[in-house]
Amino acid sequence: MARPVRRRLAQYDPTEIGALFSDDVVYRYHPYDEPIVGREAVVASWLHDDAGGTASTRDEPGTYQAAYAPVAVDGDVVVAQGSTTYRKQPGGPVHQVYDNCFLMRFDAEGRCREFTEFYVLRPG
């Protein structure tokens, strides 16, 4: 298997987002969700441009920080763990912190072809 694609994304750039995923990616924001299928649908969802109501919300620049690292790799399967910190305004106090686990499967070119998010709000 090729190494997973690693990038630092420019803010909501559809080309850069799309480059992370295979054409036939299956993406779930929650493990129990019906999946979003296909690169274009995932990009639309990330950009909040989908008509199906599965889109994530856009975070304003400077209002969040995230760090993730792999904890297990087995062939084309990777499990990553990390956290995301949110502020209501840039430079403001921390509003929320989520602890995350991502379950991913990659294709031969290193693009993600399956992605499932697991996350929980850290008690404050």
From TrEMBL:
Coiled coil: none annotated. Residues 8-114 form the SnoaL-like domain. SUPFAM superfamilies: NTF2-like (SSF54427). It comes from the Bacteria. InterPro entries: NTF2-like_dom_sf, SnoaL-like. This is SnoaL-like domain-containing protein. It comes from Nocardioides conyzicola.
